[in-house]
Design goal:
alpha+beta, five-stranded mixed β-sheet, disordered N terminus
Length: about 425
């Protein structure tokens, strides 16, 4: 029987890129590589390294820092070696909708918010910089961040819930046919990264020509922390240009879509070390220079590990802005009809399947903003969360809601009907 788990100021310093020295988890000295520092649940069964033992021997308790570059804000979480939360802090940032169906953010807002959140958790916890043993990254998936040769952001990031790329997604699926599902484990959804690259190539050719590399949201923060450009296999699976079974870029598909292979970053397994905190990042965040930063995973891959979905027969349901049903697979499997996503898991040698509704918690936020004016005003007077008031009212509604039905298609839909034009009723 399956188990079901319910889981619910910008830097002005310049960056200088250098080729990676292939400093992977297998080449970092043992005391700094045997951890996965993304979510508390990552630490179950993790090997306690010798560096941590030395810290404890002199009375210092080692901590791990997780950073989640979300859609609404950047959250920093400090945990001890047993995965117990010591402190957390979220700094919000804006989301821009320049046109109907478009969603964008400024990557510098992510970094600024991350700096503030990391400083806040260090202050709340009174942790010393030398006590933080490693940093893990997670965040919103699929977003396109384009960088020039000076590592400057070329244009605002196009996010996972942006719906402008309907034509490009249809073109990819038609051009590649069944091969895209067979190779990548997915069809090209409007929210995925491949249609975004084609959209920029078609509509903003000058920006496309300036692009030297592209990264995903958490990887931009990783770049600011370490000076290194990298992506993990879990997040890369959401580009629709990744060979999920073999855990490598799908070079033949990339060539057929006439995209330059050299803009695709190096790909690492989630627990591999992408780099170390630079002196500039250390000064901004309060971390010590040289702290290892692991490649990390997309938000759903990280949440799956945190919820313990790392073995066959375990399923999680995660409700955030979107809603996700998630399960582990010890072998590569995919849905030939493309109704489910097949991704590399954040755990090396494993994969996961998931179904996604784009507006789950997002529908509740829409209801609060559009129909909950009274509750918002009362919540301000009482000093409580308006969601608490709305949920209390909902508890009084009889089952069936007197026949009222709401279709939560506020930003198109993915599972089981992939339709970027679906609209709520």
């Amino acid at each position: 029987m399956s188990k079901c788990i319910m889981s619910t100021p910008p830097s002005t310093a310049s960056l200088t890129w250098r080729p990676r020295s292939k400093k992977s988890a297998s080449s970092i000295e043992p005391e700094s590589r045997t951890f996965l520092a993304i979510q508390p649940g990552w630490f179950e069964g993790a090997k306690i390294n010798t560096y941590g033992a030395r810290l404890r021997s002199v009375g210092l308790l080692p901590y791990y820092l997780g950073v989640d570059v979300g859609t609404t804000g950047s959250k920093a979480l400090l945990v001890d070696e047993l995965g117990r939360v010591v402190a957390s802090h979220t700094t919000e940032y804006p989301l821009y909708t320049p046109r109907v169906g478009w969603t964008e953010q400024n990557p510098e807002d992510w970094w600024s918010a991350t700096v503030k959140s990391v400083r806040a958790v260090l202050e709340k916890s009174k942790a010393k910089p030398e006590e933080v043993e490693g940093v893990g990254l997670t965040g919103q998936m699929h977003g396109l961040v384009m960088l020039d040769r000076e590592l400057k952001v070329i244009r605002p990031a196009i996010l996972w819930n942006d719906q402008r790329t309907g034509e490009e997604a249809e073109y990819i699926n038609t051009r590649l046919g069944d091969r895209i599902i067979e190779v990548t484990g997915n069809i090209a959804h409007t929210g995925f990264t491949a249609p975004k690259l084609l959209w920029v190539k078609r509509h903003e050719p000058e920006n496309f020509e300036r692009m030297w590399k592209f990264v995903l949201p958490k990887d931009y923060v990783g770049l600011k922390l370490t000076g290194e450009i990298a992506m993990d296999v879990n997040d890369a699976s959401g580009t629709a240009l990744f060979e999920v079974k073999r855990r490598k870029w799908a070079e033949e598909l990339i060539a057929e879509l006439e995209l330059p292979l050299d803009v695709f970053p190096e790909v690492l397994e989630s627990p591999e070390v992408r780099g170390e905190v630079t002196a500039e990042a250390a000064e901004l965040t309060g971390l010590r220079k040289g702290v290892p930063v692991v490649a990390g995973a997309g938000d759903q891959g990280a949440a799956g590990v945190g919820a313990g979905v790392v073995e066959e027969g375990v399923v999680s349901v995660n409700i955030g802005t979107s809603g996700v049903v998630f399960t582990n697979s010890d072998a590569y499997r995919f849905d030939p009809k493309g109704r489910l996503h097949a991704f590399c898991h954040a755990v090396p040698g494993k994969w996961h399947l998931m179904g996604v509704m784009l507006s789950a918690g997002g529908s509740l936020r829409w209801f609060r903003d559009k129909l909950g004016q009274l509750e918002r005003g009362l919540a301000d007077l009482l000093g409580v969360d308006p969601y608490d008031l709305l949920c209390r009212e909902a508890e009084q509604v009889p089952p069936g809601s007197e026949g009222l039905i709401f279709l939560p298609y506020l930003a198109g839909e993915r599972t089981p009907h992939a339709d970027p034009y679906a609209r709520g009723i």
